[in-house]
Structure formats: structure tokens, C-alpha cells
């Protein structure tokens, strides 16, 4: 891949992969590549987190299509080798952003959650992964994403306290008003009564 042609995004938005019923007969180091990409996505490259999380679900059922999708991530990395996380002393507190892609997985109809926390001008914590259950609405999927972000926010606040930083509450921004309403008003309704108690942790 040293001489590969760079590309502008880690994954084609139209990509819809399915598990391969028969493992590829080719000797493809798919799992090894995903493991290497996973290390990058967790350590320093939040921009490939979703693509790597999506591709990792095919670690035991891949074929040449999945392999080509994984190589696309390498092509993206080839063109963005100068990307970096740069931090500045700007006095801004930690802030978080949470989002979800409702029912985006065509295999099991589960949604993907994502969150990112910014401090000193750059990302310090991020995640992109499939939710554990099927959400029945966009609001429910977004609410689950906010819950995961809240758990991480508590960890970051405790870390800030240990470092003697002046960090009070961490604000988490979401673009879904219905999810915000559920989080702020824990009332029983037909829209929210089935939601697991752990999601009301916010």
C-alpha cells in the first residue's frame, strides 16, 4: 500500500457490507489489519473510529469486499499522514458532543453511537460503536448515545479533579430535542416507558 492513491474519506457513505457466508479462500490478513487500525483509532485518529468500528464486526466473516473497504482506510491514512491532535492553553473547559445514527446497520437494525470530548482545542476522548439493543426511534438512539457520553464525562471530570483542574460540570451537546427532553424530564410515557433504566442514568 506504499504506492496507493490517497482518498478523501475513510469509508464510502454508501457502503453496506454484509457478513460473508463463506470465508474468502484468499489469504487475507483482514483481522491483523483491523487490529492495527483499531490501535490508531483509539490512540490518535478519531477520524477513522466509525469506519474501523464498522469493519471490525466482520472479523470472522469477511471476504474480498470487506478487505477492499479496509484498504480504503489505509488509502485515507496515506493522504492524511500530517493530521495531528494539537492542544493549546486556551482556558476552555471540557465539552462533549454526542450523536447517533438511528437503525443504520442493515444487518440487525441497531444504531451507532458516537461521542467526542474537546479540551484545549482538540479531542481528548472519543468513541464510535454499535448500540447493544435496537432503538425504536431516533430519540431513543440519541438518548442512548448521550448516556454513553455521560459515563465518559464522569470519568473525565474525576480525572480533572485528580489533576487539580478547575472543572465543574461537563456540558454535552446533542442535536436531538426529543432526546434532550427525555433526559431532562424522566416521566413515563408511551415513547419512553420501555427504555432500560440504565439509559436514565443521565
TrEMBL record:
GO BP: any one term: DNA biosynthetic process
Composition skew (Basic and acidic residues), residue ranges: 13-24
Taxonomy, superkingdom: Eukaryota
InterPro entries: DNA/RNA_pol_sf
Protein name (Swiss-Prot/TrEMBL): Reverse transcriptase Ty1/copia-type domain-containing protein
Organism of derivation: Nesidiocoris tenuis
Region span, Disordered: 1-24
